[in-house]
Amino acid sequence: MITMKRSALAAALAAASLFTASAQAALFEDEEARRAILDMRQRIEQQRQAAQIMSDDLKHANEENASLRRSLLELQNQIEALRTDVARLRGGDEQLARDLADVQRRQKDIAAGVEERLRKFEPVQVTVDGREFSADPQEQRDFEAALAAFRKGDFLAAQGSFSDFLRKYPSSGYRPSALFWVGNAQYANRDYKGAIANFRALLQQAPDHPRAPEAVLSIANCQIELKENANARRTLDELVKAYPQSEAAVAARERLARFR
To answer: What predicted TM-score, i.e. pTM, was given to this entire model?
Structure first.
């Protein structure tokens, strides 16, 4: 009986021991599982946080990329605007260059025109009958026009032109020559007394003028036309004495020989 009780007790103890060991084993396994779960959760959380950081970084990078694209677009727009401004400025410079060239050309034309007009009034050096002097361009033109009329044989026009010239230019260097030619025009127009007066005016003003001997001979011719032979002989004698080497003196000697 006692033995049976001991056996039952031993069996109970053995069963209790087995239960305890089993419980301890189950408890250990639950703790490991919890730790594994906790580790896994921690790793998942770390991964989630890392993924969040990467997502934030990617979002920030995208925002920076979009901002950079906007800046690049603005820069391209600014470059295009600058190109447009440069083209406009170049066009303006070209227009300014053309305008400047036009102004310079007009200025040159104006200067040339002014210079040409000034030349019309500036004195020029002329040589007439072996004498050189200064004359105004208009004065020169008036004298040459009167002389051209005489050479064409239009003695009335020449007489009028030379008379106008002498009134218009009383101190002209042309005056002795103008007196000579107006006298010859008067002679051709048979105004002998008027011719004598102008020839004598020439001799009084410029007795050493190259035309002076011819003027004396012309006075004698006028006197002959006026039938003043005695006066003509005296004039011819004066010519030979005053200008003995002149061609007019040779003609005077021939006419004096005819008078004798």
So the answer is: 0.57
Tally the domains of the chain: 2
Q: Are residues 81 and 144 in the same domain?
A: no
Same domain, 26 and 111: yes
Q: Same domain for 114 and 172?
A: no
Q: What HEC string does the chain produce?
A: CHHHHHHHHHHHHHHHHHHHHHHHHHHHHHHHHHHHHHHHHHHHHHHHHHHHHHHHHHHHHHHHHHHHHHHHHHHHHHHHHHHHHHHHHHHHHHHHHHHHHHHHHHHHHHHHHHHHHHHHHCCEEEEECCEEEEECHHHHHHHHHHHHHHHCCCHHHHHHHHHHHHHHCCCCCCHHHHHHHHHHHHHHCCCHHHHHHHHHHHHHHCCCCCCHHHHHHHHHHHHHHCCCHHHHHHHHHHHHHHCCCCHHHHHHHHHHHHHC
Lowest-confidence pick of 36-40, 129-133, 223-227, 233-237: 36-40
Same-domain status, 100 and 151: no
CATH number of the domain residue 214 falls in? 1.25.40.10
Of 59-73, 116-130, 208-222, give the range with the top mean pLDDT: 208-222
Residue at which a domain ends, from 122, 141, 167: 122
Decide which of 228 and 77 is more confident: 228
pLDDT tens for residues 87-146? 887 877 788 888 888 888 887 877 666 556 655 668 999 999 999 999 999 999 999 999
